[in-house]
Design brief:
Length: 210
């Protein structure tokens, strides 16, 4: 008799345990389902997120006037800079990213902006020169890169033509920062520098390493 009562007690406890497990599993599933799919952002929220990303990713450091002097001009966000960056590629200048039809990127779609950020190529196929760090942006999440593109498309247009690229070997005018030749460790797997533009009446120097 005692054995029968003990068996009934064990079975009852097992049933209660199973019911409790099912209840906990159900709650866990519901909780996971409720939090795994966040509500879709409105366009205004997407743009606000893109603005934050433009600062946290360093876009404004180069493309907003005054940023590298500690006083970014927020009335001209991402309108380009005339402070050049000199390196083996020549001298490049941060472009005007506002949707100005003549001097900015008004003709670029959001997909064009995303492709440039992730692949380093403009819509016409030309490449973005250093110091544009597109290899790092290539790993930006879909949500973040779409938010950044949405924000850029909402910028107020600013008419400002950034200086054109100065090829290697040509003396630039105006202000510019110079990257020194890379030390041996950093240069180990770098591509060879672009050939210098020959001076009038002269010939171009031989390619590096030859």
């Amino acid at each position: 008799m005692n054995r029968i009562r003990w068996a009934i007690l064990v079975a009852s406890l097992a049933g209660l345990g199973a019911a409790a497990s099912l209840f906990i599993a159900s709650c866990t599933t519901q909780s996971t389902t409720a939090t795994s799919t966040p509500p879709a952002m409105t366009h205004d929220q997407l743009v606000a997120r893109g603005r934050v990303i433009s600062f946290s990713s360093g876009c404004n450091d180069c493309h907003t006037p005054g940023s590298l002097y500690g006083a970014p001009d927020t009335t001209r966000l991402l309108s380009g800079s005339e402070l050049g960056w000199q390196g083996p590629w020549g001298v490049s200048y941060p472009r005007n990213l506002t949707p100005d039809p003549e001097t900015g990127i008004a003709s670029w779609t959001e997909d064009d902006i995303i492709a440039a950020v992730r692949t380093g190529h403009r819509p016409d196929g030309t490449i973005l020169l250093p110091p544009m760090p597109w290899p790092f942006y290539a790993f930006m999440s879909d949500d973040d890169v779409h938010a950044l593109a949405a924000f850029i498309k909402t910028l107020p247009p600013v008419k400002h033509q950034a200086p054109k690229v100065v090829p290697p070997g040509v003396k630039p005018t105006g202000a510019y920062l110079t990257f020194p030749p890379p030390p041996a460790w950093d240069a180990m797997n770098l591509p060879p520098p672009a050939p210098a533009v020959p001076k009038a009446g002269g010939s171009a120097p031989p390619p590096a390493g030859k």
